[in-house]
Amino acid sequence: MRPIAALAAGALAAAGLAACGGGDSGGSGSGPGYNAAVNKVVNASDKKGGTLRLAMSDDFDSPDPGNQYYAWDQNFSRFYGRGLMTFKPAAGDDSKTIIPDLATAPGQSSDGAKTWTYKLRTGVKFSDGTPVTSKDVKYAVERSNFTDEMQLGPKYFKTYLVDNKPSYKGPYKDKSDEGLKSIETPDDNTIVFHLSKPFSEFDDLVAMSQTIPVPKAKDTGLKYESSIVSSGPYKVDNYTRGKSMTLSRNPYWDPSTDPIRKALPDKIELQLKQNADDIDNRLLAGSLDMDVAGVGVQAGTQPKVLTPQQKPYTDNPIQGYLRFMSLNQHVKPLDNIHCRNAVQYATDKVAAQTAYGGPLAGGDVATTILPPTVDGYRKFDLFPQKQAAGGNGLDDATLAKAKQELAACGKPTGFSTKISARSDRPKEVAMAQAIQQSLKKVGINVSIVQWPAGDYFNKYVGVPNYVHQHGVGMMLMAWAADWPTGYGFLSQIVDGRAIKPSGGNNLAEEDNPKVNAALDQAIASTDKATRTKLYGDIDQMVMQDAVEVPLIYAKALLYRPKRVTNVGITAGYGGMYDYLNMGVEK
């Protein structure tokens, strides 16, 4: 899904969280227990009132549901927006379930999974009192997928709708009332999507925030992020980029039309661009309720939350994110596969794991693009490494393989390039430094460039022209599935058709026709076993191209203050806490 920062984070999804185990007090504290929220929702409550206080070390990519991708954004935006479907507010395996939200039921498929029909709930109103109709959902999809302005989210609809033609320029340029012919709204409570190819996981797709309705009369393009019209239980009172967002109750929200939201707090406050260490300290002090980034506490905080008093308020889930490094094929000399192979061998993954927090707060060393928790994972390692005795990095045999590849690349003494990391993610910067040191041992010299998470994809690494012009050959990122299948994980990072002029996530610019064709074949199949096998095949094909360096299958050490209610790890959003029904004990 989603870039973890991305994500994204995007985005999206972890599976098999049961591997983390159930609750374990892990100490003398009185909390629900260590890992208690991994498989069940803890501190359950229906108590209304109070203010839910949230913070984030950076900012949204955009709070506009049609122009966002980070996993935490999409988790959070459900406070003020309702898509056709969504992930069930739950914990563990149950949280991977897609359930109706604005729709009354899952989509009705016909024409071999090329036509999908949804019925909308009646009585749903925007925060200005006007009724939500199917036309508002259609318009939301058109603006998010077919305009030059909205570049940050995925373009699945543009790829798969039957009349995907250059002649349609989106609703800002096409002023006709008809819009896309491939999305029909025969009445105010029915919407029909006509696809050019079968798409067996379409219910998963419409669970993304791009189906959150937008009233055409209130759309202000990129300025809409500051004047969002809510369809959820909360309305956006104020959003100031880089500072804050405040939410209060939507007076037109009717709980009888919304069986999944509790809407407990009276107010929600989100502070942005906060120092990551300060966020941790405020969580421990009780003056903050949640770090919405969902990436865990900082290294300096880990010992503090693992004391007997605090450990019962922590969770260490397998998140379903992959932390990896993309190698751009259009930045020399990484246009040569042997130079990319050299990087694969010479990148010390144990050093990268240690820099990010070790096995507990970092994750397990990765060798594949698909994490073990996503359908389609197949265990293999095309670039095996061994550590030297005494913990001094990679052994001589592994380094020799890297040097052989450098010679085959025509760079026997090495080369120079740049590696990027997000400036507000100290652990990611530390990972870049560890990779820098390990590559230097074979003559690959990299300089580190840093940009904030809020701009990382839409201004820098996700802009191919910028990457080429500035020679950024290596880019760190993290990714979770848009939904918990191989297609939901792979399509936006390895499909050549997902390459965009800005805000893209296929940072390597992988455009292998065999990969593209296999993705189409998989999503067209109605047989899950066939799809699962193809996802593993695609993973191996991309690794043979050596354009992605898997680093760690992510884990995080998360902290839940005792006053926060209805806390559970959602697999749907990559293994962070589900924010939808959180409340507070006043």
TrEMBL record:
SUPFAM superfamilies: Periplasmic binding protein-like II
Entry keyword Transcription: no
Pfam families registered for this protein in UniProt: SBP_bac_5
Signal sequence annotation: 1-18
PROSITE patterns: PROKAR_LIPOPROTEIN
Annotated keywords: Signal
Domain Solute-binding protein family, first and last residues per copy: 97-496
Superkingdom, natural source: Bacteria
Keyword Signal: yes
Protein name: ABC transporter substrate-binding protein
